[in-house]
Model the fold of this input.
Amino acid sequence: MTTVMAARRYFLDGATKSAIATELGISRFKVARLIEDAVRDGVVRIEIEPVPDIDIGLSRELAVSSGIRSAVVVRTAVGSADLERAMLGRAAATLLVETIETTDILGVSWGRTLHAIAAYLPVLPRCTVVQIVGGVPSLELDVNSLELVRRFAERAGGPVFPLHVPLVVEDPDVAAALRADPNVSATLAMFPRLTRAIVGIGAWEPGGSTVRAGLSGDASTALDAAGAVADVCAIPLDREGRLVRSTGLEERSISITPEQLRAVPDVVAISGGATKVMAIRAAIRSGLIHRLVTTEETARLLLADA
Done:
């Protein structure tokens, strides 16, 4: 009888072991033993409901194989890029709700897949939201980078630090002048304080990267020649995950630096699709990301390439 009472108070009522010990007139250690006995003897049965559309086993396998902290692998309908992005967006939105705390300073990047989060983002714990890349114009999407950050901030209800400047400019002197603007510098000063960030992964090929789309032909060609296959927050990477720094892009970009991104304790990347496999692999190898939200097809291709 005591075992059942202790188990009921602990699992159903949420009572602490100390409170149960006082109620039953026994030690807290005895309560802990009764709870263990209840589980072992079948008095308590614990069931974990599978999460719809998430492959838990494959998620774990990908995380272990890749050496990242965790992965969320989403089952999607192969062949529909828009549907894949929508499902990735929903999964990433759920992950944010489950992990963000009120003390967090959240960095938000940009990309087609991150754009999908906006449609599914519920109310978040009150936190600070910081835009970590400059603006990227896109005629394809109804939400630009500033609007995406505004939506995150609206859901979080906390302070917001936007970047009202382009991501890439042609002249390094212009970039330096923009960084010196008080409003811009206030946002840049938040980068070392970030506790979390959510980023996309661009594949360095036509149509695969919003950063590449904003560069001149000469700049894209220079990065191609330097071996770029991916970008994370306008940080170009080669296939081994090494930084590609010889082209001057960093001097012309207004965004978080590789060193600042690497210092963020928890960086979640959201990206999927067969054409993104090499880019995702490069991002993982770079050590810039800690967690990945991706599709089942992408996960299997990454595992096959491991």
